Amino acid sequence: MTFFKSLVSALAVTAVSATAAFAGPPEQPRVLDFDAMGKTIGKRGGTLTTLMAKPKDVRWITVYGGARLVTWDQDYNLTPDILESIEVEGNRIFTLKLRKGHMWSDGQPFTTEDFRYWWEDVAQNDQLEPSGPPREMLVDGKLPKVTFIDELTVRYEWETVNPVFLTALAGASPTYIYMPAHFARQYHEKYADPAKITSLIESEKVQNWTSLHKRFTRQYRPENPDMPSLQPWTNSTKLPSERIIFKRNPNYHRVDSNGTQLPYLDEVILNMASSAIIAAKAGTGETDLQARYIRFDNYAFLKQGADKGGYNVLLWPSGRGSEMTLLPNLNTKDEGFRAAMADVRVRRALSMGIDRDEINEAIFFGLGRPQANSVLPDSPLFKQEYADAWAMRDLDKANALLDEAGFDKKDGEGFRIMPDGRPFEIIVETAGESSQETDILQLIADHWKQIAVKLFVKPSQRDILRGRVSNGETVMSTWQGLNRGLATAQMNPEELAPISPVQAQWPSYGLHYESKGSTGTAPNTPEIKRLAELYTSWRKAGDTAEQTKIWDEMLSIFTDQVYTIGVVSGGLQPVVVSNKLKNVPETAVWAFEPTLYFGQSMPDTYFMAE
Amino acid sequence: MSDDKSKSVLTGNTLTSDAVDTARTETFAADSNTPLTVDETSGAEAAAAAARMKANLPEGTQTGSPLPAEGAGALPHFVSTAPFDLQSVEQLTPEQEKIYFASQLTLMWWKFRQHRVAVWSGVFLLVLYSTIFISEFLSPWNYQTRHSKHIYVPPQGVHLFHDGEFIGPFVYDLKRKLNLETMTREYTVDESKPLKLSFFCSGDKYNWFGLIPADNHLVCAPKGAPFYLLGTDRLGRDMLSRILQGARISLTIGLIGITVSFFLGIVIGGAAGYYGSWVDMIVQRVIEVLQSIPTIPLWLTLSAIMPASWSPILIYFGITIILGLLDWTGLARAVRSKLLSLREEDYVLAAQLIGAKAPRIIGRHLVPGFMSHLIASATITIPTMILGETALSFLGLGLREPITSWGVLLNEAQSINVVAVFPWLMLPVVPVIFVIIAFNFLGDGLRDAADPYK
Fold it and tell me: What is the pTM assigned to this prediction?
């Protein structure tokens, strides 16, 4: 028996040293200060199981993994992560230095060639990216001057400042300015053998080589198990699958205070389950770490099974500007409703008609904060006036505003009719993903009855809803509030300005901006124009003081004009953590950005205790 | 009992089976050479009358033979002077008369009465259906009233004695504590002060059937006192009131749906069976197509068509009509096959000869012949309708708030939280189960009774 044991350990030692010969962290790894982070030194090994609902959810591993060229640290300052260092001159010239000996997960070196490949052969290839490099790379429509100084140094140089560059690199869904060149080349027209590409196009049933290249080199959504990565874990399962196994990246660039290479966990397994039963499964201890697909109202149930299931339930404060917002569509197709939604008096009245205290009490256990959709008190940009903007229930004022806006006539039942004679019935479309949303809307429907406005809820489906919103088919929809509820001045204020067609309150204005005026509608009110202007000027702002000023003005316009109607902020996200899993913080901000959900707390430091 | 007697008497007669619905066809087919004597009255009635006449002239029951003794020579011509009275030969006792002359309905009723379970199911359903006229009155609260201080209150008991003293039905106050450890609302009963319930009192305002404003309730608690016999839901709404209100929708949706499907089934099935040939062919193919479509996706599509801005009541009607539109196929088939055999009957030919039009022949002569069968099958279909509504609403595609039905209530109860922490929210399952079972028993009883001569 003893002999056997020693044989096994001897073999294990050989195995470890064998791999160490070929793999390991870069020469200058990122050493994490565990004491400062309040973490304990763990040991390698173990498997973490978590539940997800869709194969698409593999992207959360990229978010949770949290390896970025630069990242936001605990105090929301940007620090180099994958990069060894970064030099910034006047927010204009960025010199990125890579770690020596840093390798992709497949053992190939990670060098400036990977940056060059992306910049020259992908971003500027008009077949792969017909619309050119991503917006973050352009300042006034001009490309940067990119110099590949040596194997480990690359410089991006713009004529004027580009404050989005670094924040985009640190994003939850970051801008990838590099790509594993050695791997991606095999799908690139310029490098690959044409015969091989033709046969691949045929066998994969795609249109052309660009689809091939796109499909096999996705970095944010690691669907391709052969694609090398820099994240702590890399996918090893071909999708679709009911069980997706992520394996430890042997060349990961972070080490703990003792010099042990991270991540500690050997495997992360995503088990697919229907989103409706994930809470139930979590309650029986079928997951080691779970926050996605469980909600605050599951807390009592989860807590009940905590002892038996061998887990603990933490409550992490949400970092969203509002747990739910109503988004009046300013670009809705229907003329009567477009006029109504575009009228700030209507939006303010609707916001004031909501009894946020009751919603807080009934849905959020009284733990939330009734406030407008704005930044949170923990953000340095917070001002009380933003939170309070038109968020206090005042029926008289709301009624007066609606009367003034031309909605003074009532029908037989006592509900308001629009100036064109139709009933003022607002249909709120939801993605139909949580009953919490419907409950809140139910309460709001009752509240609005008192200002004689009818609300109907129409549950739909996420993708359908998106489509309907951008086609202007919705009058009002719901979504979560600002993702960057904990914004600092350095963060991109894009959520406050009409710049993207995904923004459900002004999809057409957003499209107009994104298409540089070729499609969509140009904003027609001074406030919205100003927001777009401010956004443009933020992108040119030289320093934090100027950025702060711009953020202030944008927040002030955004909340005063009530483009989105926030309900309650400060929700709590239950996090189920197995008792065996260590180094998960007791509390952290649950947000997509800037904390990348678990990402900021560094899941690579989590480990399984015996 | 009655069944046995009628059988024993009737078997002595060669033509007895005439009276029996099912066998009627054969006899008429065999007798098809006899002259037609069917008048304007319905074929079914005429046949029944003829059967009864014949039944009263049984050969074997005569007493004292009128024939002379053997070898007495030629018989003198004899003419009886007694009045010709069919009934004189055999006088039925009033008791027998009651049975032999009983109408089909009466016979059905007698037969039905023997099926005890069916009777009790019927009584149960009658009581339930009568409550829907006064749901608001029976509910202690308006079903939409939210008690934000009493969210997720478990079912509560009603007490009679306080400190050993009888003071009539009363409830105790509840003390709420927010447990921040488990994030639950904990309610403890404060037994210091009894809060007496009052009867026939004024409470929450409501509009009776959405029309007549009133505030009368059968029972109410003093102001601010908690009185939730079946607990409250996540918004603090009284479950008992919601279940009572939900009964109105859930129980009637079956009736309305069945009316639609009945109408369609009889008209379409009737046409197919009566005309046969290509009409029948088309109808049969349509039915096959309809039946081959999986029901749930079809429901989903149809209910997705209904615009969100429709009032809940319109949606309600929309759903009943959807359920009805999809459910007629089985019935149409039954009607068709029945008609296919009945249309060959002589009385149909007679009706045709005297110029009756197809709708009249189907409606007047053919359908009544198997109405009882239809009624029984309808009774069995109602639960399918109720379950259909429940299923649709459970999936969130049927009725929507603020209208409430058992399906809507169950839809709200489908999370793991409810099962584990707030099980009383699943109570609407209980009436659903009981109603479905009751309807099935009732249908069973009716089906047996529909054929009383068997």
Answer: 0.74
